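INFO  loader      accepted 1 record
INFO  loader      residues=251
INFO  predictor   begin
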Amino acid sequence: MESIWTPGSRRRREQPVVAVRPNDDAPVPDGRWPASIPAVAQVLRHGIDLAPGVTFLVGENGSGKSTIVEGIAIAYGLSPEGGSRQARHRTRATESPLSDWLRLQRGIGANRWGFFLRAETMHSFYTYLEENPSTGGADVPFHEMSHGESFLALLESRFDEPGFYCLDEPEAALSFQSTLALIAVLQRIADEGGQVLCAIHSPVLAALPGARILEVGEWGIREAAWDDLELVAHWRSFLDDPNRYLRHLLA
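INFO  predictor   done
INFO  writer      dumping tokens
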């Protein structure tokens, strides 16, 4: 099986991550987690080529999208619990060993800046910034903001130059309007030559024009159009007639 996507352009050569490949000592996919997840197994067998701009991984809980984003982020040198390459904060190690099994093909002359945003560890990251003023985050009162407000403030203060941005379900903290604001941020990053890899459940985010969508599930990883996503079909069906779902759930 060939890699998922292989464009050729000057922009591709200069992007932070051109491709992700399994190391020579990566295990053969078997029944042990996380290699037992079909999407992870596909990456371990064939690797994955990353597009310039924005790539979304879309799938159900447990499909492996967050595990893949986490593994690639750590392999890039980003903090496992969120932050940049310089962030050094830890609570409890829960990451999978996937990053140890991957090697990254980096773009020629690409900006090495990067940031990993993961919703469940942002509280500890804000504390890390407060306790380490030299990181440049002490002037933003993240802990005094609502969850969504702090996310938007983080986007404004950290997503400010081209680089490699990994996001794990960023819409978890955001309202509809704030999700639209995130779309604008992602588009700006892409326009300025940055690269985004983002795991989502949001059909709103997935609608970003020009974004590449990879649908993750029991089949592994497959490229998909927004209109063909199971996620979009389910939301359309629910919003068209909520009782179609609720009468079975609440009976």
